[in-house]
Predict the structure of ABC transporter ATP-binding protein.
Amino acid sequence: MADTAQTSPPPDRTDLPQHSAVRSLVRLWPFIRPVRARLGTAACVAILASCISLIIPLVLKWLVDGPVAGRDPGGIWLGGAFLLLLGLAEALLFGLRRWLVARPLAGVEAAMREALYRHVQRLPVAFHDRWPSGQLLSRGTTDLQLLRMFFTFPLTFLLVNGVTILVGTVILMAQRWSLGLVLLAPVPPLMVLCSVFEAKYGRAARQAQDQVGDLTTVVEESVLGIRIIKGFGRHRSQARSFRKLTHALRTSELRKARLLAWILVCITTLPEIAIGGALVLGSLQVADGELSAGTLVAFLSTALALRWPVESTGFLLAMANEAATATDRYFEVMDEPAVEEPATGGETGAVRDGGAQVGGVRVGDAPPKGASASPGTGGLVFSGVEFRYPDAPPDAPPLLQDVTLHIRPGETMALVGATGSGKTTLTALVPRLYDPTAGRITLDGRDLATLSRDEARALVAVAFEEPTLFSATAAENVLMGTEGGQDSDLRRALAVAQAEGFVDALPEGSATQVGEQGLSLSGGQRQRLALARAVVGRPRFLILDDPLSALDVHTEALVEAALRRALAATTALVVAHRPSTVLLADRVALLSGGRIAAVGTHHQLLRDNPEYATLMSGEGESAR
Ligand SMILES: Nc1ncnc2c1ncn2[C@@H]1O[C@H](COP(=O)(O)OP(=O)(O)OP(=O)(O)O)[C@@H](O)[C@H]1O
């Protein structure tokens, strides 16, 4: 089934496909298309400006052979004024080009970033299991900046330079073809050198950009894991890993700089030698009277005017190569198949965290959402469900095999099993974070595989043991669990999760920003907000993965009392490790060896099933 489907890991850098930079860059066309008219106009303006610089030598020729040779001051002033005008026109046109491209190119970058973000949100969880977050972040930041630089400079100027060099060459050949040939002599060796440079620089750029991704991952982990790093005194080893990566990145950047220096030396030196040769040859021809001084001045001025277009080609090629690498990296993510539909509230938001009622406030007062969507029969049924993680060794048995379990409508089922037995994995199948590799799951008789993800997530809410809070207010974090939730829904959900007290005590109550990852709250407080998020939408099905593990016994009892009332109308599957959580449930299912080994009440299983008894005893707790 779809979700666990083919998501590839980040590309193996030792085995990257080699294809031309042009082929990579052509893929940017759909993003460039909407601004092609502006870019085309800007390119024409730049070509015009660049070609003006080629007219200046012709005016010089006229000045030297005409007014200067004829000692005509009026003509010299006229020529000077004309040169000034040409210079002004060139500057104005280059300014106009910049103005034409600035806004549309910022728009292209924003559109690409938005497309990437949207796509990443739609990628299956299996993709995120494999891709380090830093690699995704660097693709959305540094790589896109490189692309904007490419659109601004190389994309236009490689064309402008090409046209300028072509027009200049025609002018040179027209003036004196023998001298023109001397200037063209370096072209074949330069073309060979440029193609070698492109291949080598492309590899170095790819390595450096991947290393930026690795570095981003380490920085992100160090910031998020700062408590662990400090708690275990790991700052030195963490700093060592960071240094190692920065050193590797520096080595790659130096390699890029060496390659660039090498090509710039070639691109600068060979044409200079050719200009020197043409100067000597031209001077001899002027001395022999075969060539006018004005023509030689014009010829050399044209050749010098072509120096910048030729020399800047080295930089432009380097930037184009980096852009090609950035394009490859961008499309490695964009080419990943997304799940078939966009989620409406993000993975955690759509799959709500949390649930129940507090002291007399009943989440179950109103009918659960989605109740009208089905006749309300059937409950949650697993039939012959098999699951294997995509990256599991091919010869390993499936993690879950032939899981068959019926949770009746309105029933609360606890799921118990040894650590690593697959409880979290089984619960993740219900909100379709993953899809089973065989078998089927039905919600009130409707096959989960036939429901869209949005439909499934409208019916199902989840709270995980590790609660994720977003950098938003406490209220916003909770209301993420439902579309158009009101303040009354918020209060009810907070009451169920026993979160009212501490939320009201926050400096700005439920309007307090709880900070990135909710770091300003305790683990138990975060769990309760996540629980409130799960119940706020009154889901028809509730999946709780040990959501009370961080609570003290007293608070846990209060939350459970509220939950019991709230769950009266909800079909729930609760992963439980402690007898206190199990007591919340009507029945208990024991997951063992990838199968449901036993189902019964807590007391029945305690009596009849030694494995369950061990798990629920102190030995079971310590075995965790
Ligand atoms: N994304 C993943 N990719 C590959 N294997 C995974 C992935 N997530 C979990 N596993 C493996 O699947 C097995 C079951 O993990 P799961 O988290 O479902 O167990 P659990 O019963 O919930 O454990 P616990 O009680 O410790 O939370 C483990 O061996 C784990 O290493």
Notes: DSSP finds 26 helices and ten strands in the chain. The domain at 347-364+378-623 is CATH 3.40.50.300 (Rossmann fold). The chain has two domains: 18-334, 347-364+378-623.
